[in-house]
Automatic annotation (TrEMBL):
It comes from Marinobacterium maritimum. SUPFAM superfamilies: YgfB-like (SSF101327). This is YecA family protein. InterPro entries: YgfB-like, YgfB-like_sf. The lineage of its organism: Bacteria, Pseudomonadati, Pseudomonadota, Gammaproteobacteria, Oceanospirillales. Belongs to the UPF0149 family.
Amino acid sequence: MTHEQAAAVELPDFDTLADWLVEEGAMTVSPSELHGLLAGQVAAGARFDPVSLLQRIQQLFDIEPLKGEGVCKSIMQLYLATLQQFEAPDFSFELLLPDDDQPLPIRAEALGIWCSGFLSGFGLQERKGAQGLSVEGQETLRDLAQIVQISTEADTDSEEDEGDLMEVQEYVRMAALLVFSECNEPDGQAAPDENAPAPVLH
């Protein structure tokens, strides 16, 4: 069964995942950074089974083996939703960021953290690296590196600032899709670990 035929998996709720991570003692791990990291690896061609996925997360964030069933399911849901959205023909890929009712500076910071995670995740996957990208793809990665530095004044939350942030957020979303399309050929060529069994949410 292809990912298109499978039931759609939605991204986990930002706040719920944040709470799970705190319960696991991973207070410094942002859901945005976690999603960016996974998205960067998937965009570069990585695929995971449930065991290797959790091991990778624990290793990268230097956290103890995840004990809670909730956080493990949420991470698997995050991975499956990311892969499905990348492969969807309608460009439905989303970024896991704080809700729109959060202050603008918090959302801007989260977007920068997402980009940082994406670049780290992409760099971890050695299959292609930036050298395997087109000129446009390499420029896109450089743009994301600039967006990592994004910041807004703590006391600004105007409609203009809101519009600017939405514009940057949309650029990041399309940038991730571009990188994925360049590193994941539709002919089914896979990363070395794609032979692992497909993960399933229970």
